[in-house]
């Protein structure tokens, strides 16, 4: 028995080590390749220039337009997924019968299995024409339709993890609330949701990370026009879309234009790292407040 436990511990340690080494290898590769880029383009220019045209004759290397497009589509996605996902989680946990919950929850999670390229064409051919009828003048490629469909894609992540967090709230808190005369809705919104806020925050963190790294939906529906804007009705380009554009194009390896994908990649890594740490901080604050 002890030998078996030691073998299991060794396998677990090996798995953890492989994960850490893989992450470290990715960081080193990005840093080394990005260093070639930053030898020719000053970091200040990269962070402050408001134009991104490395493939044009008039070259500009400001990452802000790509960061803007990434945050814009992610913001739209979270604006769709968070309220819908939380409403679904509250209904399934507080109102639905056990049989209904056991049927609906797996069906929601099927959305996560749909290929993202399908979501992309759905955004382009269905959602965009529908929104154009509601919003005259909206461009054929835009951040709103791409972000909205991306929100549908990450909806199972938010609803499922939030529902698990709500389920973990002790029954005694609900009973104490009912004993004080609160309704079911008041109990859900003022007792259960605050108590489960740390778990809900985790679901939002994971959803944001998933949305920031999404490629196919934004590549198909959002366009490929890097611009510094907060207007979701116009075409934008995200960091992942640009990386795909250059990687699959005719840009020669080793050129400055090709090295831009590593600079964009390390920017995406830092952006995700910052968002995750901010989310972790919020989670800890919520946990300290309600524990």
TrEMBL record:
A GO CC term assigned to this protein in UniProt: plasma membrane
InterPro entries named among the record's database cross-references: MetI-like (IPR000515), MetI-like_sf (IPR035906), Phosphate_PstC (IPR011864)
NCBIfam families: phosphate_pstC (TIGR02138)
Cross-referenced PROSITE patterns: ABC_TM1
GO molecular function: phosphate transmembrane transporter activity
Role, per record: Part of the binding-protein-dependent transport system for phosphate; probably responsible for the translocation of the substrate across the membrane.
Pfam families (alphabetical): BPD_transp_1 (PF00528)
Name this protein carries in UniProt: Phosphate transport system permease protein
Cellular compartments annotated: Cell membrane
Top-level taxon of origin: Bacteria
Main subcellular location: membrane
Gene of this entry: pstC
Family per record: Belongs to the binding-protein-dependent transport system permease family. CysTW subfamily.
Biological process, per Gene Ontology: phosphate ion transport
Domain ABC transmembrane type-1: 67-279
Membrane-spanning ranges: 12-32, 63-89, 110-131, 143-166, 187-208, 261-282
Annotated membrane topology: Multi-pass membrane protein
Keywords assigned: Cell membrane, Membrane, Phosphate transport, Transmembrane, Transmembrane helix, Transport
Keyword Mitochondrion: no
């Amino acid at each position: 028995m002890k030998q078996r436990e030691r073998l299991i511990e060794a396998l677990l340690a090996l798995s953890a080590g492989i994960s850490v080494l893989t992450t470290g290898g990715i960081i080193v590769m990005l840093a080394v390749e990005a260093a070639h880029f930053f030898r020719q383009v000053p970091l200040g220019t990269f962070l402050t220039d408001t134009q991104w045209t490395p493939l044009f004759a008039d070259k500009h290397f400001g990452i802000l337009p790509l960061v803007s497009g990434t945050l814009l589509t992610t913001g739209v996605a979270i604006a769709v997924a968070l309220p819908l996902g939380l409403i679904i989680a509250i209904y399934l946990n507080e109102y639905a019968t056990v049989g209904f919950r056991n049927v609906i929850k797996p069906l929601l999670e099927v959305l996560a299995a749909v290929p993202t390229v399908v979501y992309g064409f759905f955004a382009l051919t269905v959602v965009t024409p529908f929104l154009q009828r509601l919003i005259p003048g909206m461009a054929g490629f835009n951040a709103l339709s791409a972000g909205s469909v991306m929100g549908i894609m990450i909806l199972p992540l938010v609803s499922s993890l939030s529902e698990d967090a709500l389920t973990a709230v002790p029954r005694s808190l609900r009973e104490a609330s009912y004993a004080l005369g609160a309704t079911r809705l008041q109990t859900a919104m003022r007792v259960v949701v605050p108590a489960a806020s740390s778990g809900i925050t985790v679901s939002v963190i994971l959803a944001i990370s998933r949305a920031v790294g999404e490629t196919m939906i934004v590549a198909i529906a959002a366009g490929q026009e890097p611009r510094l804007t907060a207007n979701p009705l116009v075409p934008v380009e995200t960091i992942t879309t640009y990386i795909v554009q250059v990687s699959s194009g005719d840009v020669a390896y080793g050129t400055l234009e090709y090295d831009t994908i590593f600079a964009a990649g390390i920017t995406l890594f830092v952006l995700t790292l910052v968002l995750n740490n901010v989310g972790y901080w919020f989670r800890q604050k919520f946990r300290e407040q309600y524990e």
